[in-house]
Every structure is written in C-alpha cells, then in structure tokens.
Amino acid sequence: MTAHVDAPDGAAFTESPEGLVVPKGHGRTLRTAAQEVTFKVTGEHSRVSSSFEVVVPPGFDVGAHVHARSEELFYVLEGELDVLAFEPRVRSGDDWRHWESPTGRRAVRAGPGTVLVVPPGCPHAFANRSGEPARMFFQASPPPDHERYFEELVGILAAGGPPDHTAIAELRARYDIEQLTPLRHDA
Question: Which end of the chain is more exposed for a tag (fewer CB within 10 A), N or C?
Fold first, then answer.
C-alpha cells in the first residue's frame, strides 16, 4: 500500500514500504558550463534530504556562502577540491582560501573519501583548482530547496548571454543562500 503525505513545505512525497534504488548513471541531470548536477534522491522520495552527484569542472569556485536553515554533507568521490567549513575570524575579501578560523583552521585540499559536514550558519565553500574534473556526492536538508534552486538556476543560465547576476542573487536569497565571496567559473 502506498500513501501520499504532505511535507512541511507543502510538497508531496510518497510513503511506501519499498525503498529507492538509483543505479550508477541514473537520475535526472542538469548541465551548465559551471557544473553538472544529477538528482539522485529528491523531496519526492525523502523527508530528510535531497541527494545529488555533482561534477565540478576545473576553474569552478562556488564562493563562500552560508545557509541559515540548511544542513549539507559533501563526500569527494574523484579528483580534488579545495574546501572550507568554519567561521573565519573576519568574513572579508574575495578569496575564502585565505580565511582562518579563531582556532587556526584554514581551507584544505580534499581528495577522494573526504567528508565535509556543514551545519546551518557555518560558512563553507568548495573550488576545483586542479586541471581535472572532480566528482562529489552532495546531500542537502531539508528537501526540496536545493533541487528547486538548481532547476531555477539552470533556467536563468539558459537565457543566453552573460549571466543575470541580479536574478541569481534574488534566487539565492529565496533559497537560503547568503553569498559571502563571488562564485567564479574560469572556463
């Protein structure tokens, strides 16, 4: 027997005695010049989190940002990413790689097997400074905020021409993303 239940944000998901299996290479994929995101688990399937596989191309820097409500988990599968997950002494400058926490923590180079857990309110960032694509598993809670964000971002970027930075800033504000340093993609 399958029951439809309303999630707290009004989205519906299916409660079923059966689990979900998403084989390698499956899931809905959104592609932009800046990254490739494959939806593995969405708010339709989970009350807890949305899960994605993300390919991060060389030169992409998501920029330091913070979420007031969202919690995230990143697991590097292939390649290397520079990562940060701490409150810096001062949130300043364009480049989060130079930030330092009050306890001396700094951004690190993360290779396969590295896990990054980001609670609400924690500034965080990732960037691919290598010459090869990196691949990571990404989980965001609560669903479906990040999946909707990715869908709307692709719509803005598909408009052609230079990115509409005002539309992107408004989109981020709607989806609990306070950008602290610029997003960059040196293609």
Answer: N
- Closest by alpha carbon to 120, among 50, 52, 66, 49? 66
The answer on pLDDT for 92 being more than 50 is yes
Rounded to the nearest angstrom, the gap between the alpha carbon of residue 42 and the centroid of all alpha carbons in its chain is 14
pLDDT in tens, 4-55: 444 444 445 455 568 899 999 999 999 987 779 999 999 999 999 999 999 9
Annotate 78-99 with b (16+ C-beta within 10 A) or e (fewer): ebbbbbbbbebeeeeeeebeeb
Give the CA distances from residue 62 to residues 15, 20, 31, 136, in Å, rounded to whole numbers and listed in that order: 34, 30, 15, 14
HSE-up of residue 167 (Cα within 13 Å, Cβ side):
12
pLDDT at residue 2 in the model: 41
Q: In this predicted structure, what is the pLDDT of residue 5?
A: 42
Residues making up the chain, counted from first to last = 187
Q: Locate 175 and state its tokens.
A: 């989806």
pLDDT for the residue numbered 16: 55
Please, how many CA atoms are within 13 Å of residue 61, restricted to the half-sphere of its CB? 18
Report the chain's terminal Cα–Cα distance, integer Å.
49
Q: Is 149 helix (H, G, I), strand (E, B) or coil?
A: helix
